[in-house]
Specification:
This protein is an alpha/beta fold.
Length: 409
Amino acid sequence: MHAWPASEVPALPGKGRDLRIHDTATGGRVTLVPGPVARLYVCGITPYDATHMGHAATYNAFDLVQRVWLDTKRQVHYVQNVTDIDDPLLERAAANGDDWEALAERETALFREDMTALRLLPPRHYVGAVESIPKIVPLVERLRDAGAAYELDGDVYFSVASDAHFGEVSGLDAEAMRLLSAERGGDPDRPGKKNPVDPMLWMAARPGEPSWDGASLGPGRPGWHIECVAIALEHFGMGFDVQGGGSDLIFPHHEMGASHAQALTGEHPFAKSYVHAGMVALHGEKMSKSKGNLVFVSALRREGVDPAAIRLALLSHHYRADWEWTDDVLAEAVERLARWRAAVSRPDGPSADALLDEVREALADDLDAPAALAAVDRWAAAQAADGGTDEGAPGLVSRTVDALLGVAL
């Protein structure tokens, strides 16, 4: 599976700061100090509908992580998956009378178009669950043979008791886990399970559903969490720098993935840090495909909204905050974009050296994009009020906004 084209990242003078970021597992700030190549895994879409603002906000957050790392003169090895086989995809295809593979391909293509328009840096490896099945099957067999998994009516479940570190990513108690498992694709009430929250590793073939050769597991398809484990272990191994996604992935997805990998390898941790973006709401409720309360990136683009304005709307909220999309949020972003473009269109202006420093510091401080935007606002206001004589300032501001915030002026 291929990703989308990369936009050029302008070079900036000097060097950025190491990123201090909130780690879900510890509940506090950590300073990320990767090696020469920083390793980032972000969980991707289940492609049964178009990219909405919740998706865009999450991937925008991890685009900022990449840009901060690139500004420290590191390379970034970024991996993202696509869950191109799962119950929601099959259910939507059946409801629409669509072929599930065609639906997945169509929505993945639209996702690529949206990411390109928003100028989000692409992953080095963009990997589907289906293409990963030959690598998933041996991992499930290893877990079963090691006693970390068990069979139930032909399905194979992971035993959370097999990982001594289970629970360390989310910090949730057993009852909270059970409730979230039921809400987010688990089956805690199924009789015969050793623990209600034990997740499925391999689902035996069901009538009328696609299945693949599972070797000793029999025909079937993989569970949700094991796909990301197989992909991350293949490209990174254990102890990569950041696993990221929306806050709705903390449990069960990231908790279970960590335990799968730790039980497989005997090593800890799966990822050094777990970073999660907040949820975006519409009309008082979290945007979700199941509720249908969605604002799509592609729909806004068709209406003629500049993707740079969409990106500024996302950047105006801290990545960890839960917030609500409104017409006013977009209108403010459109107005800000116009002010910034007018400011950098002049031949000279106030010195921008301090601005570059402010934007770097804001982003290094837990990706504080609103503070970075405020710094650019101040420069633009000074430009509008008094101007300046620094001929290089507008160009430096334009390159700073492009390189660090991903917005082309």
